[in-house]
Write a structure and sequence with these properties.
The complex is a heterodimer of chains A (346) and B (411).
Chain A (H helix, E strand, L loop, with lengths): L2 H30 L1 E5 L1 E13 L2 E12 L9 E5 L3 H7 L1 H12 L5 H10 L2 H33 L2 H16 L2 H11 L5 H8 L11 H29 L3 H9 L4 H29 L3 H5 L9 H10 L4 H32 L1
Helix pairs in contact in A: 1-14, 2-14, 3-4, 5-9, 5-11, 5-13, 6-9, 7-9, 9-11, 10-11, 11-14, 13-14
Chain B lengths: L1 H14 L1 H4 L9 E7 L3 H11 L6 E7 L3 H10 L7 E5 H9 L7 H11 L6 E4 L2 E17 H6 L8 H11 L7 E5 L5 H13 L17 H14 L11 H9 L3 E7 L18 E4 L14 E7 L8 H11 L2 H6 L5 E2 L11 H8 L10 H17 L5 H18 L5
Parallel strand pairs in B: 1-2, 1-3, 6-7
Antiparallel strand pairs in B: 3-9, 4-5, 5-7, 5-8, 5-9, 5-10
Helix pairs in contact in B: 3-12, 9-10, 9-15, 15-16
The chains are: A mainly alpha (346), B alpha/beta (411).
Amino acid sequence: MNTRSFAGFVAPSVVAMVLLILAPLIGTAWLSIHEGYVKTELAEVRTVVPLFGGLTRVEVQKVPQAVRDADGRPVRIWNYVGLDNYGNVLRIDRLAAGLSAAAAGGVDWITQLYRDITTIEFWSALEFSLLYIAATTPCVLLLGFTVALAVDRTAKRIRGALIFASLLPFIITPVVGALSIYWLFLDGAVVNAALQALGFSKFYFLSTATSIRSLIILYGVWHVTPFAFVVLYAGLQTLPQDALEAAEVDGATAWQRLRFVTVPHLAPLFAFVTLIHVMDAYRVFEPVLVFGSNLYANSLQYMTYRILNLEDNYSKAAAASLLTVAGILVLLVPMLRRTWREHRAA
Amino acid sequence: MKRTLAFVATLAGMLAAGAAHAACSIGGSGEVSTLSNSFPSLEVVAAAMRECSAGAVKVTTKLTTDNQAETTQALKAAKSPYGLVALTNGSITPAQAAGQLRPLNDFVAKYKAKYNIEDSMLIKFGNDVMAIAFQVNAQHLFYRKDILDAAGIAPPKTYDEVLAAAAKLKGAVGIEFPLSGTYKSGWNLAEEFVNNYLGMGGQFFKDGTAEPAFNNAAAIKTLEVMKQLVGYMSPNALALDTGASAQQFMQGQVAMANMWASRAANMDDPQQSKVIGKIEFAAAPTIMAAGKPATTLWWDGWAIPKNFEGDPELAFQVMMEGLKESVVQANNGVAIWTRSVYKPGRFAIGTAESARAGAPPYPMVPQQSLAHDAIGAHIGDFLAGKTTAEKALADATETYVAAAKAKGLLK
């Protein structure tokens, strides 16, 4: 195909990608190297607020007020700050201090180093995001594969209904799904009541880091397993029957057939599911928001959300989200390199 | 009999809310959208505002508990899609400091007679009316009278008494935990700290500046009292939000709590509560021996964004239609209204007594919201036992300083 017709075919996608991916990315990078705020000066302001039943309270205090320009509009400041925002998010200075304190040795330096690092928001968010990926990915693959194998063996009559039911957790809006899991584990909620009926003592699921993190990981596995299931199930339909029969004739047991015929055949699909899931899991947000504890489990996406909405700082949030993107790229480099090599070899 | 009557009256009031007050009577044309939080009194006000949708006037209301983030963005944008935004003491100060709100003096003067706009409804910064407040709210003491009477405990007036009562009630029959509270890590936990620290006589900033001053002995003592209180709550306390802890109360699992007055009406709601009529209200306990109740008084009100692309006068009229006297009279029990036609019932006792005893209003300076957020992000670590009080407060101060510098409030 000559270059012109190739360009013609590719042009719409390229335009879409530039508009929807590249331009916003550049815009975010632009935001992250600047800072912007309204210029304020201290002025003595008298505020009157209602208290109750006609009572009011008057307070006179020095309050920052917007500086106005000639037209009465608030003056906005916009400065170039280089990598300051990134520095504020990463807190290299505190990281270095924690590392040097650990290098100095002493009893229990590992716990102390862990504590020093995880008090910095970015690193504690990174820690849990990586933990989440490491814990959910194998479970999702294993469970998805098991369910795919099971559904593959059921009678054709009920298969449709089974597939639909298995897909439901993936279809539910993440916030709603996370809320339902949260409500199951509250004080006196369904799970606790069931456990007590079975004779166990009351367990407080939201009280420790381990249990909250386990719940979030549970939600993650529950939510993504249908995705792995549907991809692997489709793959199972393409299994070469003659290879399986040949293996059976050669005396392979069911387990050996699974291990030496089925799994290698599905290997590219396992890689695909892992790739997609790792990218998604890195950006986990809803369960962290709902379980409400950046105290016990923080994530990069939640940190960005908090900086944007509660700290009200666009530029720092832009820096945080770019760092998140950089992190995903780092995580995916091995897989991308392998895919590139395979592509080259083909 | 009295309970049934009260219930029927409330129910009738809520059902008749649509019809009991005079219909909307504004002229003009245009579209007004409103954005607010979602709780019973705002639902009533929004319903009254929607009545104005007739002929050339179109009113749409949006109620969501996530309104704070959206309000911030709407006020910052070049043009705001919302003509009316609901604000509180905490959320008005950054908006006012950035000059994002339209002063309402001219409209107040023009419509004062028609809607009987009372002085106690006006939120003024200097000479400018920046918002119209319709209700007040505060956290105060809720307690189970039957449990306390059975144990022979008088309603506590100080936190020392609260702790003593909690120790006595530990393991008492009929409840699971002596205490509950809105201690969810984040905004709620920071609000508890703000209430108690101010009750301890603490100051958040050095006089007249935005420099932080909340890492000191009073703050550490506040955190220690909070830690003792948490010891008497459910182990899940740091993860339970307002709804969940109110539910603990309504399900009869808890004996005492410092809860928001706006939840008081729910305690007698037969659809949710198992303890109807058993809960009494009192001023928030004091944390210092002869101090003021450890709580802050909040108001909720409406403001008009400066960057609203429609007609601000129409928006103002819609606002006043939502807040007119007939709406308050038809829904007396739903909130603690600022209008003088409001007849305080037993749900208002806690707030009234706290106000009369001198509880302060929530600080109205723009840097307070940054401090609030920074504190909420860090003191949970101390209460969960992950770090010391000094370190948690030092971290909070550091986070606050970085955030304030980024907003130009600190050099």
